Amino acid sequence: MANLDAPLNTTPYDEEELNHFEKLLRKELEETKEEKANIKESLDNLQDNSNDESSAAAHHQGDIGSDEDEREKFLIMLRKQDEKLDEITAALDRIELGTYGICEDTGDKIQKERLEAIPYARFSVKAKQNQEE
């Protein structure tokens, strides 16, 4: 009977290449965490600045709207960073499972050049183009 917990080892990349991609992913993970921390700090500073005034009546309506727009931008940026962290973590899991570098749509090999640019890519260029059409 097959061990369902055993890695699939269907990755088209050898151990040296996988180590390279794992390093890229870990670097990307740290940079993304740092970027997320910077965005959170900016959001906190914006909140602190808007709380500095003694009352909401002291704020000009245009300033309140601008602050809300900025706050919304920071929240969107935080959500995108969270999504990116999830993608990076999933890619690291795929390396561990032996399925890294395989397009989730077509089952074909994801081009090495694509993985160099976006090491957490889940789809080949062709599959991504088909999704966008």
Radius of gyration using CA atoms only: 21 Å
Instruction: Give the helix proportion (percent range).
Output: 55-70%
Low-confidence stretches: 1-7
Structural class call reads mainly alpha
Mean pLDDT: 86
Give the beta-strand count: 0
Largest sheet: none
**DSSP summary: helix tally:** 4
Q: How would you describe the shape? A: elongated
Portion of residues in beta strands equals: under 5%
Distance between the termini: 43 Å
Order of helices and strands: HHHH
Structure description:
This protein is mostly helical and 133 residues long. It has a domain at 15-100. It is built from four helices and no strands.
What secondary-structure arrangement, pairings included, does this model have?
Layout lengths: L14 H37 L9 H37 L14 H6 L7 H8 L1
Helix pairs in contact: 1-2
Quick overview of this protein structure:
The protein has helices at residues 15-51, 61-97, 112-117, 125-132. With 133 residues, the chain is mainly α. The N and C termini lie far apart (43 Å).
Supply the key terms.
133 residues; mainly alpha; 4 helices; elongated; disordered N terminus
